[in-house]
Write a structure and sequence with these properties.
2 domains; single chain; RNA_pol_sigma70_r4_t2; 10 helices; Arc Repressor Mutant, subunit A; mainly alpha; Rna Polymerase Sigma Factor, Chain: A
Length: 202
């Protein structure tokens, strides 16, 4: 199924008509999303890819008037982009971290307790090496889930100072993780966030 006036719509889009593009987006998005979901078993990632596909089409809108069948075009763009994402994420540490995190949640209570304790001890050891102000910022932002603005008010500093402390702290933790634990930081990150929540906030 296509628009009866799709050719006109494509011409309008090619000259930057956002309203025309919105109509095309609303019409094709559901089927594009379903297509992506066949390959990507994640609703969040599928939504992201769907948005990226339409962003790419909008960015290349100057050439859209030359397209005979927009349906064929959009599905070709979607297929290529989806497969490229699959190739990329197959080797990304982020996905490895998600797998590791899911695996840890499937362990029995004893194993989970031991694993959590191990990461808590390691993280606390690294935090103890930080300057007092950086340690205080990390605890407020990560463990107490304060925003940068809230932490800034509590400590009497600027939000930009809070951000600088967090960036430095995360760099220190990243180096320690990859050196001492011999794993990628992005693999450790999901477990770090789980462990940090249960650290003492003294």
């Amino acid at each position: 199924m296509t628009f009866s006036n799709e050719s006109l719509l494509l011409n309008l889009i090619s000259i930057g008509d956002e309203k025309a593009f919105g109509k095309l987006y609303d019409f094709y998005r559901p089927s594009i999303y379903r297509f992506i979901c066949k390959f990507i078993k994640s609703t969040d990632l599928s939504n992201d890819i769907c948005q990226e596909v339409f962003m790419k089409i909008w960015e290349d809108r100057w050439a859209i008037r030359e397209i005979n069948s927009f349906r064929s075009y959009v599905f070709t763009v979607t297929k290529n982009h989806t497969f490229n994402v699959l190739k990329r994420v197959a080797v990304e540490d982020r996905l490895k971290g998600e797998v590791l995190s899911s695996y840890s949640r499937s362990r029995n209570d004893t194993e989970e307790t031991l694993l959590a304790k191990e990461y808590q001890q390691f993280l606390q050891k690294v935090l103890d090496t930080l300057p007092p102000q950086s340690r205080a910022v990390f605890k407020l932002c990560r463990q107490q889930e304060k925003s940068y603005e809230e932490a800034a008010q509590i400590l009497g500093v600027s939000s930009s100072a809070i951000k600088k402390h967090m960036v430095k702290s995360m760099k220190v933790i990243k180096v320690a993780v990859e050196k001492d634990m011999d794993i990628a930081f992005s693999v450790f990150m999901p477990l770090l966030l789980q462990s940090a929540d249960s650290l003492p906030v003294g």
